[in-house]
Fold this sequence. Notes:
It contains six helices and 19 strands. By secondary structure, the chain is α/β, with parallel strands linked by helices.
Amino acid sequence: MxxxxxxxxxxxxxxxxxxVGIVGLAxxxxxxxxxxxxxxxxxxxxxxNTAGGTNALVMTTxxxxxxxxxxxxxxxxxxxxxxxxxxxxxxxxxTGGDxxxxxxAALLSNTTxxxxxxxxxxxxxxxxxxxxxxxxxxxxxxxxxxxNYxxxxxxxxxxxxxxxxxxxxxxVNALxxxxxxxxNTAGGVDALYANTTGSTxxxxxxxxxxxxxxxxxxxxxxxxxxANAGSYMNGTALGFGAVLTASNSIALGNSSISRxxxxxxxxxxxxxxxxxxxxxxxxxxxxxxxxxxxxxxxxRFNNGDETERYGFIAQDLEQALPASLHDTIQRSxxxxxxALIERQNDNDRTYRVSYGELFAPIVKAIQQQQQEIEAxxxxxxxxxxxxxxxEDQVAALKAQNDALRQSMEAQRExxxxxR
Length: 419
């Protein structure tokens, strides 16, 4: 009893003097201040356990564990190389090894999971069998049970994750709602916040990919880069406030972007016959008749950019198209309509025009015009031949007239001579 009092007084002096840290204090407490686990008579010095706190490491036979805090590593049996600092840290661990838990209830429920690191109150609190998870921040990966290879850095990062593997979240509330989605990467406060089952998404920036929930294989780069629906696939939103509006598409920047600079003037696209289906010749009414109805205009955007531009108005283009296509533009789902003119999936159903799609109708119009020119040329050639034939006939008639005139002159001379 006297020894115990002396130890307490010594610890108090060291704490006041700042000469002892958490690890040193744990060693001191493990020397007899607090109730620790029973000694292991077969363990060598290298397998020694260190316990500090009521009921810390009381059941263990596993080697090289450190438990500091009330009921830290309380139920550990054969697990080794674990470190628990905090009330109930690694409380339920039995055979799991190489775990580190720092914070109240960190890795509380872990039983057989190993090589996990939890730093922060309730971090990885529900983990039981998951391995190689890292959680840093209050409530990070709190509901993770059996999922593996996740990294959560930030309060409540990957908060609801239960079975999703291979996720990385950095930032407060990053991937907060994820449950079973796998292989997602989120960097930034609230990045991929609503994602639940979507997988293989990447979001970098404050609230990047905020609305995505079941969509997969999407990329959001930039603060507030997002989607206007949560189920798109294979889309990219790049830049501050860029908004994805369809699967298999790329959105560059927000509505204030007025220029895209590059060292090339064209984009090379795939045009392999093996990558296309339903190939047929362009309808005749999408040629010269359509092109003649186009109304080229000059204009400026009303977003503050005063640059004068040349082009078309989508509504005018729509009216120039055959009436049979109007309904396609108005009603079709994304990726099922007309590439030339699409109506965006937003509140205003904004029109978009793909100017490259005009190339084929222009070529069709040129071909039709050339056919008309060739037809007129043929007609002119036929008229020329007909005219030549007429000229030959006229020349023949003239020759006949000349011969008749000569004959008449000869007869007149004969009559004159006879008188």
